[in-house]
Write a structure and sequence with these properties.
Blueprint: H1 7-21, E1 33-35, E2 43-45, H2 47-54, H3 59-68, H4 72-77, E3 78-83, E4 87-92, H5 94-103, H6 107-114, E5 122-126, H7 141-156, E6 160-164, H8 173-184, H9 187-192, H10 194-207, H11 214-227, H12 231-255, H13 272-281, E7 285-288, E8 291-294, E9 307-310, H14 318-331, E10 337-343, H15 347-364, E11 370-376, E12 379-380, H16 397-415, H17 421-441, E13 449-450, H18 453-456, H19 464-480, H20 499-509, H21 511-520, H22 525-544, H23 552-574
Parallel strand pairs: 5-6, 5-10, 10-11, 12-13
Antiparallel strand pairs: 1-2, 2-4, 3-4, 7-8, 8-9
The structure holds arginine (ARG).
């Protein structure tokens, strides 16, 4: 039997079958497979230990029984050894490695092979979601970059992904923007840089309407007119949305992001009444000081701090639209999973939101989607403080991406001064944007993200330039040998033999594990780390073993390793949202 794409799940099933042969069905044996320390094997099953302890058996003897009961094909594919108190190690045999490498030979194969846990599910990913009438700044980077990577990873795992940009396009700020716009908007500036001008009039409007002032009352009147559908203000609001979208679109194009839907807060305006009604009918919500609130009395914090879903003045709020959004996604998109990306400061909001949704859907008998708040830390400078421009302003995302490309251009020019300038500019776009994306993705998203130009543009370390360079290096092998990298001549390849060939082949097999950890935990850094290690294994191989040699069998097997490294690195990077290069 051929070794399937995802080796760990193949071993998982084999060990479960073995346990069942031993008559252990229903006793809760879990194989607990993981990628092993290369000194011991490729995969390790740790589950025998816990099970034997629980059942008061000798762990090592129990592990041996499991091994003895394994299907004979497993013994043919792996060297199986016991270690320590009862760990079972599996090392793929070299000829089986060759067979595996032979079968998975394109990005397409890696894609279909990787699909598993999320296969057939529908996921709504709510990301980027900036507020209109303001430019995107550095704080908007993480949601867009991590969100796009998760969309691609979920797709790689076989899910149908719906990309939904939940724009903040409704709310009290529009009273102030209209107030400022009507007084100070400059038509010339509006034509030249509309979003800049909108931001300016908003700031003026905000400054001119302090708390308890007559001006603030006037701004409120503008808001009431907008909410009541008065034509003039509605037209202004539409204009603000269009202008904002134009500016956002520029950023999305540069990051390679295309949304399926842009259903902002305003879309849910007419859908909140049903939320109030159903929450009240099912006894979840109550009136407190005129507002509609939901208490979660089982929760230590939320039993005294309720979830406010309708303000005392009757206006809807962020919670109300988010509740309506959850229902829409469940009913309209039939979502099996919903992932919403924002920074950690909204953790309480989403915890309360999800508790409310779960109780509400249960009361109504609606199907429950999996709900995830994919939160992330702040972006800071190397001093640990919030990242600011030199004069203390916020860094606009547009300027940041420009700077990344400029810096990458300097790097490329230093490395490859002989390439024509147009090509260096093109490479710089890929490297610069890729560096910004990758340095964000490669860190655990829960931590604060320390933004450092020097680190993200370094040619060694776990960085985009290092990985893109690795890809370009493999391409150059094919180019120099006059071979088509999509269909290199691989016939007659013999199994990997040298330590570096074997180490590289074993790494290649573990792609599926990395994709799975990243997708299951919605944490792209697991895949980044894998790609970095794969590139390292490739470097060691390349340094030790000459590829273009006379012996046709050796040459074919080394070309095979080069080719599989290439498609694995490219597939991985593409599914993180990066573009790759043939030459750098
Ligand atoms: N507009 C919000 C903000 O800028 C993010 C929205 C996230 N999505 C959601 N469904 N609440 O903070």
């Amino acid at each position: 039997m051929d070794l399937p794409f995802h080796v760990a799940s193949h071993l998982d099933s084999a060990l479960r079958a073995s346990a069942s042969r031993l008559g252990l069905n229903g006793r809760g044996f879990q194989p607990e497979l993981r990628v092993a320390d290369p000194a011991h094997g490729d995969y390790q099953a740790n589950g025998a230990l816990a099970f034997a302890k629980r059942e008061k058996q000798n762990p090592r003897a129990f592990a041996q029984q499991l091994v003895d009961a394994l299907d004979a094909s497993i013994q043919g594919q792996f060297e199986v050894t016991l270690a320590g108190p009862g760990f079972i190690n599996f090392r793929i045999k070299a000829d089986v490695l060759l067979g595996w490498l032979g079968r998975f030979d394109s990005e397409e194969h890696l894609r279909t092979g990787a699909s598993s846990a999320r296969s057939g599910q529908t996921w709504v990913v709510d990301y980027s979601s900036p507020n209109t009438a303001k430019q995107m700044h550095v704080g908007h980077l993480r949601s867009a970059v991590i969100g796009e990577a998760l969309c691609r990873l979920l797709t790689l795992n076989g899910a149908r992904v719906i990309r939904d940009n939940h724009l903040g396009d409704w709310g009290t700020q529009f009273g102030k923007i209209i107030y400022g716009y009507k007084r100070w908007a400059d038509p010339a500036a509006l034509a030249a840089d509309p979003i800049e001008e909108l931001e300016r009039v908003y700031q003026l409007g905000h400054a001119a309407t302090p708390a308890d002032s007559a001006e603030l009352d006037e701004a409120r009147v503008e808001l009431v007119k907008l909410q009541a559908g008065e034509a003039g203000n509605v037209a202004l609001w539409k204009k603000f949305s269009e202008v904002s979208w134009g500016a956002f679109q520029e950023i999305y194009d540069r990051l390679g992001i295309k949304f399926d839907h842009v259903l902002g807060e305003s879309f849910y305006n007419d859908k909140v009444d049903r939320v109030y009604r159903e929450l009240a009918e099912s006894g979840l919500a109550e009136i407190s000081d005129g507002a509609l609130v939901v208490f979660h009395s089982e929760h230590p914090r939320f039993k005294t701090q309720p979830f406010l879903v309708r303000k005392a003045d009757g206006a809807s709020n962020y919670a109300a639209t988010d509740l309506a959004t959850a229902l829409y996604r469940a009913e309209h998109f039939h979502a099996d999973g919903i992932a919403i990306l924002t920074d950690f400061r909204q953790a309480d909001h989403f915890e309360q939101l999800f508790l409310t949704v779960q109780k509400w859907f249960a009361a109504r008998g609606y199907r429950q989607p999996e709900l995830h708040h994919v939160s992330f830390g702040a972006v800071t400078g190397e001093d640990g403080k919030a990242l600011k421009t030199r004069d203390g302003g916020t860094i606009k995302l547009k300027a940041l991406l420009d700077e990344a490309v400029e810096r990458a251009f300097a790097l490329v020019t230093e490395k490859s001064p002989d390439l024509p300038e147009a090509e260096r500019r093109e490479i710089a776009r890929t490297v610069g944007i890729g560096a910004v994306q990758y340095s964000d993705l490669s860190q655990n998203r829960s931590s604060n993200y320390v933004f450092s130009w020097d680190k993200m543009l370094a040619l060694d370390g776990n960085t985009a330039p290092y990985l893109l360079y690795a890809v370009a290096r493999v391409h150059s092998i094919f180019r120099k040998a006059g071979l088509d990298p999509t269909h290199p001549p691989l016939a007659g390849a013999t199994p990997p033999e040298t330590p570096q060939e074997l180490a590289l082949a074993r790494r290649l097999v573990q792609f599926a594990d990395a994709v799975q950890s990243a997708t299951n935990q919605l944490r792209p850094h697991f895949l980044c780390l894998y790609l970095f290690e794969l590139a390292g294994a490739y470097s060691a191989f390349y340094a030790a073993d000459k590829v273009i040699v006379d012996d046709p069998a050796v040459r074919a097997r080394r070309l095979l390793l080069c080719h599989r490294t290439l498609i694995t690195l490219e597939t991985g990077l593409h599914h993180l949202g990066l573009r790759t290069l043939e030459r750098m």
